[in-house]
Structures
1.
Amino acid sequence: MASNTNETAGPAVSCRGVGKIWAAGTSRAHEALQDIDLEIEPGEFVVLLGPSGCGKSTLLYLIAGLEQQTSGLLTYFGDAVTAPSPDRSLIFQETSLFPWLSVWENVSFGLQIRGDSEPDRRAAAKEVLQRVGLAEAGSKRPDELSGGMRQRVAVARALAMRPRVLLMDEPFAALDVQTRQKMQDFLIDVWRDSGASVVFVTHHIDEAVALADRVCVFTARPGRIKETVKVDLPRPRDPFSPECEELRKQLTQLLKDEVDRAFEEQENMAEAV
Ligand SMILES: Nc1ncnc2c1ncn2[C@@H]1O[C@H](COP(=O)(O)OP(=O)(O)OP(=O)(O)O)[C@@H](O)[C@H]1O
């Protein structure tokens, strides 16, 4: 895999005392994250779970290098994160596919920008489209695909760049329940094949239990990691097993107070407007 980072330097991503204040130093200053300590190992699947507005997306943007933290240290394979890199691909809830390009062109777009040759682009796009089960859909446009297929194209486009870390911001939230479950199974297969670490944001406790090696539960804003829960269960996981049921209970309990606090804060903000 393409990488010029120091691979012997330990975790794929390390956050030490990371904080983020939006519009720091202005009257609009707004603390989103506080004192985040988190290490993500190569190949690990970490889920970030927390109430609305607790800073989960903000943390993904910091890891992606799209924003800079206002305190603490954030490293990627030992190097400070200062800018975005295709090594750390970000996938959103709404896919950002180019509607006027075919699936092939969407998937190979980043490779073209990087300067890969036409044969290399074709080979890489073919491989990742096969991997996401869309080998036959290369000539279609995004509006000819279902929501689930579009998200698979988005995953293929990210994988084509051979990322070491996939950052996923509620990627299946817009899908119906059945499609979401299929996409979770699909993601687990793709993740295992790729060897990448995944940092996955969700509001859904079921999704966290189905996917994670580790779930980081956030407090209400400013987001801190309230507790980290290890999910030491083989995959695929039976959602009706007593172990999954127990984990759901534990996570629901951990989240409850934080969701109540987040609601209170939002009500206070609405009253102040
Ligand atoms: N670009 C920005 N400028 C100023 N404030 C921002 C910006 N982006 C996010 N925020 C604020 O930072 C806080 C955390 O937002 P963020 O989107 O990271 O939370 P979240 O946990 O991902 O929320 P949700 O689950 O609702 O998507 C919120 O109060 C939000 O309003």
2.
Amino acid sequence: MYCVRKVTEDLYWVGANDHRLHLFENIHPIPQGVSYNAYLLLDKETVLFDTVDWSAYRQLVENLDYLLGDRPLDWLVINHMEPDHAASVEQILLRYPDVKVISSEKAFMLMRQFGFHPDLHECITVAEGDTHCFGEHTVTFVAAPMVHWPEAMVTFDTTNGVLFAADAFGSFIALDGKLFADEVDFDRDWIDEARRYLTNIVGKYGPHIQLLLKKASGILDQIKFICPLHGPVWRENLGYFVDKYDKWSRYEPEETGVLIAYASMYGNTESAAQALAARLCEKGCTNVAVYDVSNTHVSYLISEAFKYSHIVLASVTYNLGIYPVMHNFLMDMKALNMQNRTFALIENGSWACKSGDLMQKFIDEEMKNMTVLNDRLSIASSMGADKNLELDALADAIIDSMKED
Ligand SMILES: Cc1cc2nc3c(=O)[nH]c(=O)nc-3n(C[C@H](O)[C@H](O)[C@H](O)COP(=O)(O)O)c2cc1C
């Protein structure tokens, strides 16, 4: 059965929802699913903007059959070649032998590499600022390198103000009938998954997102719709989401608050982390989130790290090292270019406590623009009442440093 939604009078969402995929990119859990968005423009000529994951090809075809009727598909515009959008390109080319393809030079290279045989069709290679008219609609192509692959571009329809944004402004969570961000409570139900998507998938490329935002800022008043390749379409309050993207890509915290991530085998470090959380709340800082790194997928930890201004790492010593899962979290923060945070440390060990010094060294030497508070809570196996003053001092130091922000 076809399942389409109207975006504007002649533009349709023809994508699909995926609730079967367990791990996005075979690494990030997506318990609420994901959508693969493709869009069909019914102008004098017909234009498909991007395709869908291979698993959703049948749905795309049913949608196209329904909307095209007897009309041919004239154009295929590929903004992004990652297989979750482009895996169906070969099948679309086979199904519509006369379709002409518009994309960037690097995207055509990738199509050949993936074995999609674009050269059996008329191919138009476009670059920054090139335009094309499909009848009523004229579009401009804008390069968006590394948002999130090198070939990526976005397409702006100057006639109706639709921005086909590729992976920019995307989100996890299947649409399930809703299409527009104003049809859901985005700030309540979607923002965490949008942040987890952006920070884990494209977080490393903050400067490239900034470049794209700079290009968009010149025409912000002309952009009426943002059509990403995952998640809802934006037609209202665009500034809200643009602002989030701006913050995330500048590695600026979204909120003043504390993420406490603990690594604990027997529960004593956990107990210290909980005591600190309670102490912070007692002192009036209630924007505190506590996570066990061992049972929280690192993509959630990354998202929370991008959200909060302060991060407390509490780790046992493990074979003279940092607990492996905590070390993995640190490595991931580094890999994703995280910056501009204030850290506080809690360490624990029973005979040679090393985790505090090692976490400090990692943050100082491997990461950029981070501050580590001098106050450190050091525990020998378990925390007794004798550590009360140190716990208090740590909580005070965190709260004081918030006032400096
Ligand atoms: C495999 C393993 C390796 C450990 N290596 C060290 C170590 O190198 N130095 C140390 O002081 N304690 C080491 N410990 C002890 C724990 O770090 C220590 O008991 C800790 O206080 C327990 O905290 P928890 O209750 O939060 O798990 C090790 C424990 C295990 C199980």
